[in-house]
Specification:
The protein is α/β, with parallel strands linked by helices and 203 residues long. Helix content is 40%, strand content 11%. The strands form two sheets. A five-stranded mixed beta sheet has the order 4-3-5-6-7. A two-stranded antiparallel sheet has the order 1-2.
């Protein structure tokens, strides 16, 4: 017997409940809200989601989300191309950009090394980071990864891979609490952590 009076409603609730942070009660509330909206509004949301899924690309240079081969940050001539900030994912780019404390370029790894979850260095964009640093001329590499065991493991792995890099390798200061991810840090704390970064070998 179906949980709801309509199998179509139940299917919608099941799909919405798969989203992170969305329980079945919230999923039902969202589904009923959409059901009560004008058809054009629901179709507009559906089209926006389909366009996002089908048309968004990863920047060929930094792996950030983009509408074209090069993202708006990489193609911006006003960015400081001497500084490269390495982050776990695109949410970290958004978090750092909100602070207005960094004007360099980014490299998005696509996650952090996590053996328990089966994520190895080969599953991340670490190899493209190393190749990029060989080809481009950076004065400083900033490691801005989560203050977690997995983030620290990834930091150390990258640091070893860049042992022949002639410039400065730094990491954000510990204004970010241990165990925190960048996207949940307040803008002032994150901004200060970027500005007060320290050499990695003194970390």
């Amino acid at each position: 017997m179906a949980e709801y009076s309509s199998v179509f409603l139940e299917n919608a609730v099941n799909e919405l409940a798969r989203l992170p942070g969305i329980g079945r009660k919230t999923a039902l509330r969202l589904a009923l809200h959409l059901l009560g909206e004008e058809r054009a509004q629901t179709e507009s949301l559906t089209n926006a989601l389909l366009q996002m899924r089908n048309q968004i690309l990863l920047c060929e240079r930094c792996h950030n989300i983009s509408d074209s081969k090069r993202c708006s940050i990489c193609s911006n001539p006003r960015r400081d191309e001497n500084m490269l900030c390495v982050v776990a994912d695109m949410r970290d780019v958004l978090a750092i950009e909100r602070t207005s404390s960094f004007n360099g370029l980014y490299h998005v790894l696509g996650g952090v090394i996590d053996p328990i979850e089966g994520v190895s260095p080969n599953d991340l964009y670490i190899h493209t980071l190393v190749e990029r640093i060989k080809k481009e001329h950076f004065n400083e590499i900033i490691l801005a990864l989560p203050a977690t065991i997995e983030g620290d493991t990834t930091n150390f792995y990258i640091f070893r891979q860049l042992r022949h890099f002639g410039g400065k390798i730094s990491t954000i200061s510990k204004g970010i609490a241990v165990g925190d991810t960048l996207e949940y840090a307040d803008e002032i704390t994150l901004g200060r952590s970027i500005m007060n970064r320290i050499p990695f070998d003194k970390h």
